[in-house]
Amino acid sequence: MREHRKNAGAAAFPIRKKTIGTIIFILLNISVIAVTAILEFSGDTAQAQKIPFLGLNFRFLFAAAGCVLLMVSAETLKYLLMVKSFTGYFDVKTAFQVTAIGKYYDNITPLGSGGQPFQIYFLSKKGLSKGVAASMPVSSYICSNISFALLATIVMIVNSSVTGSVAIHIAARIGILCYLFIPFTITFFTVAPRAADSVLQFFIKLLHQLHLIKDERSTRNKVLLSVDEYRTAIRGMSKKRGMLLLLLLLSLVYQSSMCCLPFFILRTFGGAATMAESFCICVFIYAAVTFVPTPGNSGAAEGSFYALFSGLTSNYLFWAMLVWRFFCYYFFIILGGCVFGYNAISQRKEKIIRQKCAINKGE
């Protein structure tokens, strides 16, 4: 009896520990969203006293929602094509979920770069090898960065006078370099494996000397093995030139839709900006704030986008900023949260079914 109670207590502990971890994770995310919202809208309470429903052009609001739908569709289609390429079948559910999870973590982690590790983990849980699971988010990330850098470069050449701020011009150029840094690094690890492995071994040895790594040899072998798997998968993806071209085009659709979003919100609230002007300013601003180390570039993004929304009246200014931030930031957090909730419920149902099947077999 004592042994039974001991085993029961041991079995219950991981459940309690997992539940506590889930609650802490949810509270942490709520805290991030709450702090971000306070930073964004704390100074505008006087402007928020009256909701300007009357006089809004809802056709443009629907167009803004269409931009968001196009963004999600483009990212989902990227993963749908990659999953089909590696597995031989279309899996819309997996493609959509990995998109939602990636955007969720991108928006709650600094520098917007936290989505890829969780996407790799999610795809690995689906039965894909580590190398294949890594190559898809990495390929998507590379194409997204290159597409925006290309878009920003074209805008700077064609319409550099759209913003007269020297600071934004300088920050935007630095931002483009930041967008290209990771694709360059990944390419370096792929085409120059010996040099890349030497760099990795140097840093592993340095971390070992700093007592941050206990077993240098074991860590080095694991890291080099993982990098080799990723390298092999990325090389395989690089041979699929048609696929990469489609990924790049879909990334351009995503980036263009994101930069069109402010124009439709401006027109919803009566703004008079042109599509070309707002699009180019939006590209400049996104490039300029990319290296701001806050979740979703919060703070810098809102301050910079006042340049776009400043032509609105005071009441409309607050609500335009709120709607824009919902579409480009909070929507993706909510979408990712819904996917997590759906998966948690599905896993719980599957567990109950397995338990019932085990009981029936026992009978």
Describe this structure in words.
- This protein is mostly helical and 363 residues long.
- It has one domain (58-331).
- The protein contains 12 helices and no strands.
- Helix 5 (130-158) runs antiparallel to helix 6, helix 5 (130-158) crosses helix 9 and helix 9 crosses helix 12.
- The radius of gyration is 24 Å and the shape is globular.
- The two termini are 23 Å apart.
- Mean pLDDT is 76; it is low at 1-15 and 44-49.
Please report the distance between the alpha carbons of the first and last residues: 23 Å
The percent range for helix content is over 70%
Number of domains: 1
Q: What is the count of helical runs? A: 12
Question: What spatial form do the alpha-carbon principal axes imply?
Answer: globular
Oligomer: single chain
Main beta-sheet strand count, sense and barrel state: none
Can you tag this structure with a few keywords?
363 residues; globular; single chain; mainly alpha
